[in-house]
Amino acid sequence: MPQLAKVVLTDSADVKHDFNPNDITGGVATLVDSSSAIPLGEARLTIGRTQTAAGRRKVTFKLAVPVVQDSVINGVSRPTVLRTAYANIEMSFDGTSTKAERATLRDYVATLFFREQAMSDGPVVQNQGLY
User: Fold this and answer.
1) Residue 120: what pLDDT?
2) Mean pLDDT of successive 10-residue segments in the chain (131 residues)?
3) pTM for this structure?
4) How far does Cα 25 stand from its chain's mean position?
5) Domain limits of the chain?
6) What pLDDT does residue 1 have?
7) Are 103 and 90 in contact, with CB atoms under 8 Å apart?
8) CA 25, 104, 58 angle in degrees (round to 5)?
9) Do strands 76-93 and 28-33 pair parallel, antiparallel, or not at all (unpaired)?
């Protein structure tokens, strides 16, 4: 079982962000990018692993990236979350799956987003449909 450790993710401007361990609650690990000046603006990554009653093993990654701006209300400036972008990746494996099968699925997902960007760039980045 791997120990919860820092994860470094790179944004679209090629800036690296450190997601540091924050907590493990109910089997779900939380890591936060504390580069924001306030906790309200922290991007959060959660990683959880569960097993269903049918014996399937599920691994879930969730990423929440808020956009924060100062708002002035009655002359008082305070940070406010304008919007948040979310990503949810869930992988589900049969209880009898092999290590190679699980690695293959992980690698397919990584390839889809990092090597086959044409198929993910249009719908995600350019906000376009596929034809």
Assistant:
1) 77
2) 86 91 93 87 94 92 93 88 95 94 92 74 78 75
3) 0.83
4) 17
5) 7-94, 96-126
6) 65
7) no
8) 30
9) unpaired
The alpha carbon of residue 86 and the mean position of all alpha carbons in its chain are separated, in whole angstroms, by 7
Residue 115: its pLDDT value, please?
64
Residue 20, token pair as written in the block: 């540091």
What are the tokens at 69?
A: 């701006």
The sign of the CA dihedral 4, 26, 32, 124 is positive
Contacts of 97 (CB under 8 A, 6+ apart): 57
CB atoms within 10 A of CB 16: 9
The candidate with the shortest Cα–Cα distance to 9, out of 36, 40, 44, 37, is: 44
CATH topology of domain 7-94: MS2 Viral Coat Protein (3.30.380)
Q: Which residues pair with 90 in a beta bridge?
A: 60
State the number of CA atoms in the 13 A half-sphere of 129 facing the CB: 1
Which tokens is 6 given?
């820092």
